[in-house]
């Protein structure tokens, strides 16, 4: 005789009251489950609902025993899950989820295959869960729903369940991911369900990894149905201007003349699910731009839809989900449809702008890497997923190239900062600047022997403008670069004088220090003045050469910054002064030349130190039908392999003009 649910509930409550931490014995458990099974399979709705409520209580007191699976067979599970519908009361739905989560965890029986089979045959439960999430039900319903999906995927992966692909595709086809995205965007809700969502994220990543590594192509009865679905979508979308795609359309899309065989041999299951979802997307932006591209493209420049879609799918799985490079995006994997769509849209736009060909897809995908890296950074700084997707959509090809070039420079700087190579380049550039300054000094120049500003001011005070000019020096470097030859003149002559024999000689080795003092020309404009002023090009400076006994050896005045740099820094370089002792302008010149030199030389570096073979392309700008696509081949990952002798040998081929 079967006990009614009132009697069963009383027995369960009494056992829990008397034995708060104990579990039932296997025999008693079997009898209770048989009675509940009878009511669940039966037609009495009240007894059915009451039995489900009692099942959720039994979770805490049932023992783990394989003998219980004799009662809890697949027929029982199918009957239980067939009850699930959008109109099911939240309390009853929660009870089913509680019992199902325990089953999937293996808490009652480690044989979860009957449960997985029953859920697969009643897959509508995923849509009901999604509807419950969207309608904003109670905290418990949302939490149990997320836990159910997480445990469903984990159990299917653990058992290598053949129809795991059905679970993953059904979840993807529903708006479940969209609902989870809404939870992650709301900080107050994410605080409540954060752990559940993190567990779900791990389950999904493990599920995708399993689908791509295990041979589910042969395990799943539904796999070929999905391949057929994809082929039908390709037939409708490869050439939107015709009702049915032709052999030419399949070939130009990268699917070969036998698309079914190509998909079976080349597509991972993740590729299959991603691309089906993408082609089902109702957003017409991509389809419109894709149609326009096909209209004006020739055979070699048709956008390879299949190849590009596989590349974006692999990037989102291999780079975003399986590495630590995109931590913030990985936590938003529930926006995968949007991320995939924007990635495909960017692929198409870069393809059109760069006039690329099919062989360039691996290079274009690196531009997508750049865009998503910036998206990941933006997410980390607090931007919403909607804002990030909007920013991704606005990236132009020119924007991405500028970012890539900047990143290449930054990697160079980071990899070679404070190394012997940097010091070597700085020394070499300083020698180059020294030669330039010596060249200027060897030509000689006119400087003032007296303060020109003071003489001018004295004449203005006496109303005697122009009656006396300041005395001039002609300075020149001796032919052996060891001395300065100078001679005083009353005025500057039109021709360059020859003072090698008549001028005074100042040995450079006798110079111990240099001083440069700005000379105030006395033409400052009052702060409150409303006058428009034109800044004079004259910049007077007094340069003093000081001996080892701190005695002034020679002083003269320059009237331009350029003249000051030529003599002051030129003499300092002759005296082997340090970089820090040079003028700011000359230091900046050296820094710019070092950067230019370094960037030019590192282009020639390969990632392996292999003698003469080490001089090869690293960062390249490759021509692609009159356009260039910047590709960073090696990411400087083996920077520590370069030795100083190799770098010196490479840099030896650089010449300055």
TrEMBL record:
Query: Which domain of life does this protein belong to?
Result: Eukaryota
- Residue ranges of the PH domain? 433-575
Q: Pfam families annotated for this entry?
A: PH_12 (PF16457)
Query: InterPro entries, per this entry?
Result: PH-like_dom_sf, PH_domain
Gene3D superfamilies reported in the protein's UniProt record: Pleckstrin-homology domain (PH domain)/Phosphotyrosine-binding domain (PTB)
Q: What is this protein called?
A: PH domain-containing protein
């Amino acid at each position: 005789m079967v006990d009614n649910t009132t009697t069963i509930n009383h027995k369960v409550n009494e056992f829990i009251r008397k034995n708060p931490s104990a579990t039932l014995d296997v025999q008693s458990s079997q009898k209770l489950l048989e009675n509940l099974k009878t009511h669940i399979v039966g037609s009495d709705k009240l007894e059915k609902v009451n039995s489900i409520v009692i099942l959720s209580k039994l979770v805490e007191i049932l023992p783990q025993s394989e003998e219980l699976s004799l009662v809890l067979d697949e027929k029982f599970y199918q009957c239980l899950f067939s009850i699930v519908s959008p109109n099911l009361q939240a309390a009853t739905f929660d009870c089913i989820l509680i019992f199902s989560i325990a089953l999937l965890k293996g808490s009652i029986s480690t044989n979860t295959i009957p449960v997985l089979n029953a859920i697969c045959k009643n897959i509508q439960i995923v849509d009901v869960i999604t509807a419950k999430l969207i309608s904003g039900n109670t905290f418990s319903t949302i939490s149990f729903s997320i836990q159910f999906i997480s445990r469903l995927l984990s159990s299917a992966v653990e058992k290598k369940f053949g129809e795991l692909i059905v679970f993953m595709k059904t979840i993807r086809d529903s708006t479940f991911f969209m609902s989870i995205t809404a939870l992650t965007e709301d900080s107050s809700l994410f605080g409540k369900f954060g752990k559940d969502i993190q567990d779900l994220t791990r389950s999904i990543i493990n599920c995708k990894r399993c689908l791509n590594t295990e041979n589910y192509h042969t395990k799943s009865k539904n796999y070929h149905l999905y391949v057929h679905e994809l082929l039908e979508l390709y037939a409708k979308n490869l050439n939107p201007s015709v009702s049915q795609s032709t052999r030419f359309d399949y070939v130009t899309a990268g699917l070969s003349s036998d698309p079914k065989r190509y998909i079976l041999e080349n597509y991972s299951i993740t590729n299959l699910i991603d691309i089906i979802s993408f082609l089902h997307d109702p957003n017409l932006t991509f389809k419109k731009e894709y149609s326009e591209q096909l209209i004006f493209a020739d055979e070699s420049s048709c956008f390879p839809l299949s190849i590009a879609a596989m590349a974006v799918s692999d990037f989102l799985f291999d780079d975003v989900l399986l590495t630590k490079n995109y931590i913030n995006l990985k936590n938003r994997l529930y926006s995968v449809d949007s991320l995939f769509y924007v990635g495909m849209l960017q692929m198409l736009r870069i393809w059109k702008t760069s006039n690329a060909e099919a062989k360039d897809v691996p290079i274009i995908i690196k531009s997508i890497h750049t865009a998503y890296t910036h998206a990941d950074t933006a997410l980390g700084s607090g931007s919403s997923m909607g804002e990030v997707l909007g920013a991704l959509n606005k990236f132009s090809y020119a924007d991405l190239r500028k970012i890539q070039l900047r990143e290449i420079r930054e990697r160079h700087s980071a990899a070679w900062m404070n190394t012997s190579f940097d010091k070597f380049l700085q020394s070499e550039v300083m020698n180059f600047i020294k030669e330039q300054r010596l060249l200027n000094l060897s030509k000689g120049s006119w400087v003032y022997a007296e303060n020109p500003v003071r003489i001018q001011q004295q004449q203005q005070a006496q109303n005697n403008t122009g009656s006396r000019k300041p005395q001039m020096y002609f300075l020149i470097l001796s032919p052996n670069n060891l001395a300065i030859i100078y001679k005083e003149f009353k005025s500057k002559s039109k021709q360059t004088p020859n003072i090698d024999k008549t001028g005074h000689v100042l040995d450079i080795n006798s110079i111990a220090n240099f001083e440069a003092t700005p000379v105030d020309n006395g033409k400052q404009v009052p702060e409150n003045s409303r006058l428009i002023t034109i800044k004079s090009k004259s910049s007077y400076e007094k340069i003093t050469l000081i001996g080892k006994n701190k005695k002034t050896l020679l002083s003269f005045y320059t009237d331009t910054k350029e003249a000051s740099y030529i003599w002051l820094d030129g003499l300092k370089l002759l005296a082997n002064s340090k970089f820090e002792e040079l003028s700011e302008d000359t230091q900046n010149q050296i820094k710019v030349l070092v950067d230019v030199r370094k960037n030019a030389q590192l282009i020639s570096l390969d990632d392996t130190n292999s003698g003469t073979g080490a001089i090869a392309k690293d960062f390249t700008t490759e021509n692609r039908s009159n356009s260039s696509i910047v590709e960073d081949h090696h990411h400087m990952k083996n920077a520590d392999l370069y030795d100083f002798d190799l770098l010196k040998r490479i840099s030896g081929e650089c010449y300055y003009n």
